[in-house]
Amino acid sequence: MSDIDNLRIAPWRLDTEEVLGEGALGIVYRGTWTRGNKTTWEEDVAIKLLKDPLLIDKAEAEVLRMSRLDHPNIVKCFGISFPNETPWIVMECMTGGDLLSYICNYAGGMPVDTMTQLAYGIALGMQYLHHTADQYHGDLAARNCLIGPNNTIKVGDFGKFDNDYEDSYFDWNHGQVCAKFLIYFSLVTIFTSL
Ligand SMILES: Nc1ncnc2c1ncn2[C@@H]1O[C@H](COP(=O)(O)OP(=O)(O)OP(=O)(O)O)[C@@H](O)[C@H]1O
Ligand SMILES: [Mg+2]
């Protein structure tokens, strides 16, 4: 059995409940995963239903990569399921939702010590990812950081999924600049050269 076969979850074990959010690649549901064999138990999970069946290979590679990571500040990926032609990715459910919405909806403005605690959690997750696991994220953004109980935070949703990392970088005077930051760097260059 290959590594990815071990991560396959039978569709009957998964139930989707309400929608938690939607992104470019899929719709995320809160759901339950029936685990175990003779004795079974239900675990709360988040399930991303991908929109595009062509993403199967990339989805499997991403699930394999994420499932090997184990850190308190990285969202746990449990596996992948194929109830129909588009894959479902099963991951830990983060009850506080994404950091972007959390900051925007925080009543009265977020205190500095809460911001510091969240930033520190993200930094620990990224340190583990880059230095211990020797992986890159590729799409670190507030919408991809997820909140748990007591302001715990975990980094999720790596960017390599829909976009080859190397392809998204340009050589800028022999330095590598990510495509998504090119507009920013271009504007800075224009304004500082005026
Ligand atoms: N593991 C999770 N636990 C709880 N909520 C989640 C989880 N993963 C995603 N969500 C919710 O679902 C929303 C959509 O996530 P998704 O990753 O599909 O889209 P996105 O990050 O907004 O955009 P992109 O398609 O660029 O990743 C998130 O903003 C978040 O609120
Ligand atoms: Mg995302």
Automatic annotation (TrEMBL):
Keywords: Kinase, Transferase. InterPro entries: Kinase-like_dom_sf, Prot_kinase_dom, RTK, Ser-Thr/Tyr_kinase_cat_dom. GO terms for molecular function: ATP binding; transmembrane receptor protein tyrosine kinase activity. It holds the Pfam family PK_Tyr_Ser-Thr. Residues 14-194 form the Protein kinase domain. It comes from Folsomia candida (Springtail). The keyword DNA-binding does not apply. GO terms for cellular component: plasma membrane; receptor complex. This is Tyrosine-protein kinase Fer. PANTHER family: TYROSINE-PROTEIN KINASE RECEPTOR (PTHR24416), TYROSINE-PROTEIN KINASE TRANSMEMBRANE RECEPTOR ROR (PTHR24416:SF611). It comes from the Eukaryota. GO terms for biological process: cell surface receptor protein tyrosine kinase signaling pathway. PROSITE patterns: PROTEIN_KINASE_DOM (PS50011).
